[in-house]
Amino acid sequence: MNEQNLAAAPLGRLMRAYAVPCIISLLVGALYNIVDQIFIANASYLGSYGNAANTVVFPLTVVALAVAVCIGDGCCAYVSSLLGSGQAESARRCVGTAVTVSLLAGLLLGGAYLIFLTPLVRLFGGNVNAETFRLSREYFFWIALGIPFYMLGQAMNPVIRADGSPRFAMASTLAGAAVNIVLDPIFIFVLRWGMMGAAVATVLGQVLTAALAVFYLLHPKTVRVDTGSLVPHLPILRRILSLGLTSFFSQIALVAAMAAINNMIRKYGALDPVFSQEQYAQIPMAVVGIVMKFFQIVISIVVGMAAGCIPVVGFNMGADRPDRVKGLFTRLLIAEACVGAAALVIVECFPGALIRIFGASGESVYYTHFALRAFRIYLCMMVLACINKAAFIFLQAMGAAAASTALSMLREIVFGVGFALLLPRFFALDGVLYSMPVSDLLTAVASAVVIVLAYRRLDPMGAQ
Fold it and tell me: Of the candidates 59, 432, 437, which has an alpha carbon nearest to the alpha carbon of residue 275?
C-alpha cells in the first residue's frame, strides 16, 4: 500500500482506483446467482419453476455472504487503520485471524446447510408447489457443498484490497465468474443436468476464486502472513467483528426480509384468484426473485463504490485527516445518488426488456403483467436506497460501528421485515411490493440525520 498516495493523492483519483475494481468484483460476484437464474429461466424444462427455486435458495447464499463480509470488511477496515498508524505486526495478525476464522465458519455453515436442507427450503417458501420444492432441494444441496469455498473467497476479497491490490481482488472474482458463465450453458442445455448443473457450475467458479485468494496470501504486497499469525487472536477478532457488524447485519437482515417476503408471497398468492392455481403458484416468487436480482446488480455498484473507499477512509482516519474523509464522503453520496437515478430510469421506462432477459415471461400473460408492476413499484425509491446503503458502509469505515449498525437494522429488520409482514394484510400481494419503497423512504429520514452528525464530526473546527 502506497501510504503517501492514500494521504495526499486527489480524492477523485483514489476513489476511482479503489472503487472501480471493487465494483467489478461485487458485480461479478452477483453474477454467480444471476447468471444461474438467466440460464435456468431460458431452459424450457425448468422455466419459472427453476426461477422460483433459485429465489428460494438465494437468501441462504446471502447468509454465507453475510458472515464472509463481516470478517472480510471488518478486517479490511481494521488493517487499513493499523497500517495508517504504522502497526505492521498487528496488521499481520489481523489478516491471519481473518483467514482462519473464515475457513472455520465456511465449514460449519456448509455442514449445517446439508444437515437441515429440507427444513430450510420450507422456511424460505420452497413448498409453494411440488415442482418448486423438488428443484429447490436439488439446487441447494450442491450449493451447500461449495459454501466453504464461497465464504473464503468473499472474505479474502476485501482483505486483498486492503493490502493494496484491488485489481487482483477483481481478477480473482472475474475468473470464477467466467468459469460459471462458460459451464452453465454446457451443464444446463447440453448435458441437461438441470438445477444440479447450474449449482455445480457456480461451485466450480467459487473454488477457483478461493484458490486465487490463497495464492495471493502466499504472495502479498504489504501484509505477509506466517503460520504464527494464523492462530486466531481474540482481541483482534473482536475488533474485526465489531467493525464488520454493519456488513453482517446489512446482509443477514436482508435474509430476514426475504424470508418474510417469500412467505407472504406464498400465503397471499394462495388467496389470489390467479396465483392460487397450481400451474401459476410459483409466478409471484419467481418474479420477485428477478426484481431482487436487478436490485442486487445496482446495490453491487453502490456497495462497491462505498466499500472501495474503506481503505482510504480507514487510513486517513488513522492518520488524523478528517478533512479528506469528509471530502470523500461528499463525493460518494453524489455518485451514489447518480447511480440510483440511472437505475430508476431503467426500471420505470424499460421493465419489459429486463423481464425478457430472464426468459420465463413467455410462459404466461400473468407472469408478464405481475412482473411489470413488480419492477415499477418495488424499485421506485432506488435513489434513496442507494444513498442509505452508502451511508451505512461509510460510517462503518469511519469506525462509527454503532450508528452504522443501528441504521442498517432499522432499514432491514424494523422496516424491511415489519412492512413485509404488515402491508400485505391491507394490500394482499401488492403489499409485498410496497414494503420496499416505504422502508427506503423512512430510512432516508434517519440517514439524513446521521449524515449531518457525521459531517459535524469530520469538521476540523468541530474537532478542536
Answer: 432
C-alpha cell at 287: 418474479
From first to last of its 464 residues, what are the pLDDT tens digits of the chain? 454 466 677 777 777 777 887 787 777 767 766 788 788 878 888 878 888 898 899 889 989 999 998 999 899 888 888 887 778 788 889 999 999 999 999 999 999 999 999 999 998 888 888 999 999 999 999 999 999 999 999 999 889 988 888 889 888 988 998 999 999 999 999 999 999 999 999 999 999 999 999 999 988 888 888 888 888 889 999 999 988 887 787 677 778 888 888 889 989 998 999 999 988 888 898 888 888 888 888 988 888 888 778 778 877 777 777 888 888 888 888 999 999 999 999 999 988 888 887 765 566 788 889 999 999 999 999 999 999 988 888 887 777 778 887 888 898 889 989 999 999 999 999 999 999 999 999 999 999 998 888 888 877 544 44
Q: Is residue 286 part of a domain?
A: yes
The whole domain housing 100 covers 10-463
Instruction: Tell whether 253 is covered by a domain.
Output: yes
Q: How far is CA 242 from CA 27, 204, 246, 423, 452, in A?
A: 26, 32, 8, 33, 23
Please calculate the CA angle 440-392-68 and round it to the nearest 5 degrees. 110
Rounded to whole angstroms, how far apart are CA atoms 84 and 77?
11
Residue 69 located in a structural domain: yes
- Counted residue by residue, the chain has a size of 464
What spatial distance separates the first Cα and last Cα of the chain, rounded to whole Å? 30
Half-sphere exposure of 105 (CA within 13 A, CB side): 24
Tell me the whole-structure pTM to 2 decimals: 0.76
What is the number of structural domains in the chain? 1
Asked if residue 33 belongs to a domain, the reply is yes
